[in-house]
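One thing: can you check what follows?
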Amino acid sequence: VQAHLQRLEDKILIHREEIADCEMIGTGDSEIVIIAYGATARSAAHAMNKTRGEGYKVGLFRPISIWPFPENYLRKLVQQNIKFIVPEMNFGQLTLEVERIVAGICPVYRLNQVNGQLIKPDTIVKMIREVA
């Protein structure tokens, strides 16, 4: 079993650039980028649209693959010297991956919610206003 699983992992790692994917919206001019996936990404998109309407330069980075993580796309954003907000409905597993890739070059703000409820767009909007 171990040899079979190792072969599968190696196959994924060899093709990671072809597999790792994400959606980036409004990140070209952003000063703040929200990194979110799943249901939280929908709330993040609403928050992005609302705050862009208020004049904040906010973008959305939505990983389509969590593993392998689309880190090359994120590294390009790090070069823009922006702030990252990571809303998650857990204890910060995605944030840990983002912090590893960002490596202290840009600030990463955690927005964790573990009460079984969806993170609402207004919760993300509040954080955007706080870190802007």
Observations:
- The chain has a mean pLDDT of 96.
